[in-house]
Amino acid sequence: MENIKIQKYEDLLLKNGLKRTGARLQVLDVLSNRNSATSQPYLENIIGKAIDRVTLYRILKTFEEKGIIHRILDNQGTANYAICSNSCTAHNHHDEHVHFNCNNCLKVYCLAETKIPPLKMPAGFEVYSMNLIVSGICKDCKQHTN
Ligand SMILES: [Zn+2]
Ligand SMILES: [Zn+2]
Ligand SMILES: [Zn+2]
Mind listing the UniProt keywords for this protein, alphabetically (predicted)? Predict the structure, then answer.
């Protein structure tokens, strides 16, 4: 891991009142270095040997509660995790962007610039969170099939 990145992860942990542990830094590093959300099986595969499953699960849960990462269920029902924007805080996520699930590579992308349009809710319904999964073919896969 590069020092400048470690510094960034440490600041993020500190800001959220979390102790610096090697496992937490590692999870942040994996999630930050990918252009798509990271599935739980993928995470287990690449860091599951260094960190046991229970610890990994707790780290993900804590990060989600702190507003550091958000969880996206893909079309197969698999949990995927992505780093949040700076506007997310503990128990107050603002990830109202579209998630794109590619039918070919199965990756889940955060389309941060594509916001979920405001929904007109019937009277009496209060919205706490919104999820919108769009399926299709991602840019990378489309380029390779053309
Ligand atoms: Zn968030
Ligand atoms: Zn794809
Ligand atoms: Zn997202």
Answer: DNA-binding, Repressor, Transcription, Transcription regulation, Zinc
